[in-house]
Every structure is written in C-alpha cells, then in structure tokens.
Amino acid sequence: MEFGLCIEMALDHLPFEQRLAKAAELGFRNVEMWFIDLSYKGTGEALATMASRHGLRITNTVIGSPDGAVGGGLTDPKNRPQWLARTRQTLEFNRAAGIGATIVCTGNCVPHSSDQQMYQAVLDGLKATADLAEKANVTLLLEPLNTTCDHQGYWLNSSDRGAELCRKVASPRMKLLFDCYHMQVMEGDLTRHIERNIDVIGHFHSAGVPGRHELFNGEVDYPFLLRKIQAMGYGGLFALEYAPSMDHEDSLRQTMVYLKGEA
Asked: Measuring CA to CA, which residue among 162, 40, 31 is closest to residue 90?
C-alpha cells in the first residue's frame, strides 16, 4: 500500500506547482487533483512534465462535481450527452498527462424521479463511461459520499450500493473509491464494509471524523484500519483528503507519523 495526498485540500494556499514541490519535499510520491480545469489551468502534457520534475505521480482527476453542476451527473439520463462529453475531455487530459484514474460522482437526486429510475440511469451511464475508460486505459473510481454533513441531496451514499454498481458494470476499469471519512459519517463499521467490498475497491480517501481535519484527531482509529486493509491484501493507494486545521506542513508530517506508527 502507498500513501497519496489530495493537493486540493492540503497545501491549497500555494500555487499549483508549488503544491507539487512541497508535497515532494514532505515525502509524498503520489498526489491527486480534482477537475482538469479548476486549480490547474495548463495542458496534460505540461502537467506530466511538471510532475516528473518533482518526482511525483499524479494518480487521479475528477470528471464532474458531486452535485452534477459540472459534467451534468449520471442520475438524470437527459444529461448523458453532457456527461459523456465531459468524460471524453477528462480522459483525453488523463491520457496526455499520464494519469491512470479519474473519480466518478453520480450527481444529486432528480426531483420526481424514483430511486429505481435513478439507479438505472446511473448504471447505464456507468456502463457507457466504462466503455470510454477501457479505450483510454483509465480506471474509473466511483465515489459514495455522505449526505448528512457535506453533500446533501447526493444520490450515492452507500459503499455497499457503490460496490454493487461496480460489479454490475463488470469492467476491469470500474472500481470503488472508499472514502473512510464519508462512510464513517454514513455507515460506520468501516472494517466490515471494506472486507465485503475489497474485491472492487481501487482507492481510499481519509480524513478525521468529525470535521474532515487531521486523521489523528477523530473517532476513527486509522492505524488499526490500515493494518486491517493491508491484511486483506490491498496494494493500492490510501490517500489523505482532508483540510488541515493547523500549519499544513506540520499537519501532514504529524499525520504520516501517526499513520506509520512512528510516534
């Protein structure tokens, strides 16, 4: 298992390239970004050069916003053309930048649509998205989010349901992103949820609960959870996606000491 860092929440007070440099200085070798046209404004090729200069791997992007305001989302089939156009744009950027994965958010619930209608729309949209991802050799990471604190109205708020969708899509390029922060808020019982879905989990996010700040200030015992995940044979990325509540560099150093049990 390797650690990663989301530079959209930590080090976000710095210009984008300075975030890469600082992440590398702090010992990270894997960093992730959000939209391809948000905090970074250049080409994929330029980003690849920039990352290489700092000895970093950019691990993933995000296709659209959780609520569907960017990309249109998957819950409403009327938005499918917009979603697929955004997907193609993101996959092309990923290809040019050498980024191997991108996050998929479902969008919010659609008024006057039944849950089953939205489920079918999401499933159909994921299958069409996976077809494009297979051609681009990019892995999709489907992310359930919490709907009680951060993303009211978001459709996919269950890791089990997300895993079910991944299995139904049945593509080697369709994986589940298990965000420990979001799923602790929604479900708790993290270890057993991870155990029964580890076959489709392709990425982890983490933050302290409550508050989405430092991992060492919260109700989740992350060193215990990491040991359990490693025992399941997971060899992918475990990424930090939290908002530091103190000096960012000190926060990240202390977090890594905590996770590695070096205190």
From this structure: 40
